[in-house]
Amino acid sequence: ERRRLPVDVSTGSYMIRGQDWKYCRYADGEEMLFDLVADPGETVNQIDIPSLVAIREQLGRELDAWLGNE
């Protein structure tokens, strides 16, 4: 996977995406995870899929590092 790009979506809300996945964390604590290959329109939030916990946690750590929250 290529380098991921973190983005400040709005005050306190951020997303990080790579070639395959997009992870969003909103100011109210809501999280979203999208499979950009299978769902390029980002219509299915997969944040609660147990088999994707490692992906969610990895993207969350990368976002925290970018934000200086590690």
How would you summarize the topology of this molecule?
Layout lengths: L4 E6 L2 E5 L3 E5 L5 E5 L17 H15 L3
Antiparallel strand pairs: 1-2, 2-3, 3-4
What do you see in this structure?
By secondary structure, the protein is α+β, with helices and mostly antiparallel strands. Helix content is 21%, strand content 30%. It has one helix at 53-67; strands at 5-10, 13-17, 21-25, 31-35. A 4-stranded antiparallel beta sheet has the order 1-2-3-4, with helices on one face. The mean pLDDT is 88.
Task: Label this structure with key terms.
70 residues; 30% strand; 4-stranded antiparallel beta sheet; 21% helix; globular; alpha+beta
Give a concise summary.
The chain is of the alpha+beta class and 70 residues long.
The total of helices stands at 1
Structural class of the secondary elements?
alpha+beta
Strand order of the largest sheet: 1-2-3-4
Q: Describe the main β-sheet briefly.
A: 4 strands, antiparallel
Total number of β-strand segments? Answer: 4
The end-to-end distance, rounded to whole angstroms, is: 22 Å
Mean pLDDT: 88
Give the overall shape, derived from the CA principal axes.
Answer: globular
Rg, nearest Å: 11 Å
Order of helices and strands: EEEEH
Proportion of residues in extended strands: 25-35%
Give the proportion of residues in helices.
10-25%
Please mark out the parts with pLDDT under 50 across 5 or more consecutive residues, or reply none: none
